[in-house]
Amino acid sequence: MTIGIGLIGASRIARDTMIPAMRNHPECEVVSVFSSNPERGKTYAAENNIPHAASSLTELLADTDVHAVYISTTNELHHQQVLAAAKAGKHILCEKPLAMNLNESQEMITACHEAGVVLATNHQLRVGDGICKMRALISEGAIGKPLAARVFHAVYLPDYLQGWRLNNPSAGAGVVLDIVVHDIDMLRCVLNAEPTEVVSLSQHAGLATHDMVEDGNMAVFRFDNDLIAQVHTAFTTRYADNGIEVHGSEGSLIINNVLGRELSDPVILKNAEGEQQFELTQHSIDDKTIYLFIDAIQGQGEPGCSGEDGERSLAAALACLESARTGNRIEI
Ligand code: NDP
Predict the structure, then answer these.
(1) Which end of the chain is more exposed for a tag (fewer CB within 10 A), N or C?
(2) What are the pLDDT digits (tens) for 174-183?
(3) Quick one: CATH architecture of 3-124?
(4) What distance lies between CA 96 and its chain's CA centroid?
(5) For the whole prediction, is pTM greater than 0.85?
(6) Which atom belonging to ligand 1 lies closest to the Cα atom of 177?
């Protein structure tokens, strides 16, 4: 059966990334879009070859051709839109951060369980081939006991994204809810461990236009296997590289250029025998996210990142923000 997807939010990420990924799946079809501005919704539908523009969320959710929704509105809207979609019996792929706080995420997860619908969070980094390989090597003991990790994910926010991410705290602006939440999700997956506490410092380096919005952050997380992980994120650095390193008692694993959507570098393993590189198949992380989501809807396996995983990663990001705000070490 073809799964019809309704888009909630006429967003850039839907247009540039997720609609193409949906169209790369043979059993997935984009059937409708809802925008809070009906005129923009119609234009968006026409420009993106979407058959229908719904003039209200109720109309989109009442459409029997819509079996699932992809929610990519600004972050403060995810909660109410997930609740409405669950009530209408639609499966849900929701953008990150899953919600603005843990009361909201709890309610969303419960509503989806009760409605019997799939709730997936779009933390796509964890499904990447390099990250999956790194996780497998760590669990096989390739680096001995994992002791420390480092994620370097400082970017320059492109001009076209310099809107609500920099000036609207009530929409969940700032680098922590935008990027740290992805990085901690990836670390949780790679390490197969949970963060237990965090200390962090935020920065206001001139790009964010609101006092309450950070445009840089450095955080150190402790995990329940006693590993410590350093995470550097920013919107302000034009020439920084990105990558992840995990250092263990018997070796180190490194992947560079793994935190964007382009193909990552190979996984590098360094140990007493020297250096080994693992070349990867390199599936698109967004295609893989959609494949796993459609499989989960069809009762075959779990989505790439569940609602529960989205919530745990959100909890760590919120603790990171609180640490920066209060100057305290925060338990997660
Ligand atoms: P956009 O700013 O493109 O879209 C967010 C909302 O803004 C849309 O829902 C739309 O409202 C409104 N909007 C968009 N364009 C215009 C415009 N030209 N004029 C007026 N309103 C407009 O956001 P993003 O696509 O960057 O992000 C959306 C969500 O996706 C966020 O939750 C973000 O965190 C997440 N995201 C996730 C990524 C990932 O890697 N997983 C990457 C990028 C974003 P309406 O609903 O009314 O149409």
Answers:
(1) N
(2) 999 999 999 9
(3) 3-Layer(aba) Sandwich (3.40)
(4) 5
(5) yes
(6) 34
